[in-house]
Amino acid sequence: MKLIVITSPDFIPEEARIITGLFEVGLDLLHLRKPDATAHEVGNLLHGIPMEYRKQIVIHDFFPLKDEFSLGGIHLNSRHSEAPEGYQGLLSRACHSLEEVKTMASHFDYVLMSPVYDSISKQGYRSGYSQEALQQAQAERIINEKVVALGGISAANLSEIKALGFGGAALLGDIWNRYQTWEDAKEVLSHFGRLKKAAG
What's the pTM value of the predicted model, to 2 decimals? Predict the structure, then answer.
């Protein structure tokens, strides 16, 4: 099962270094999401990430940066719902219901299904799915290798996500809530290493 980390929406200290460290300990994909940033600011962050890892980055917004920095792909959202003409590369989008997953998953390399559990990073953003609904979706193969679980993912529920048949899990709060300064990097990277091992 692959692990995706979504960046903090805000820029954080030594961000390029901690992202590089995550790749070094086995991060599969990084979703670069900075909704309030400028393309120039996002480009500055990308400059700090070694070329060898850039193909494992999927960008939200600022799609021209995909080719400029040889990134792996783009993520569609409500602001940018269509891929550019002639686009080549990884393509993903968010889904907020099982019906959406059922309709959309086959058109993308993968979809992010959320919120599977109560969000860690967004207060009051509650799970949209009962345990019964998730199990039923697994039985009907709506949840499959093209569906990545997002929302409240942590060490406590990673094995359940795997058992439900998700192709991956996307982490945000469980990673960035542990990180304030570079002094926290060692613990964050160790924590991610444990998650990677649990994901298998």
Answer: 0.94
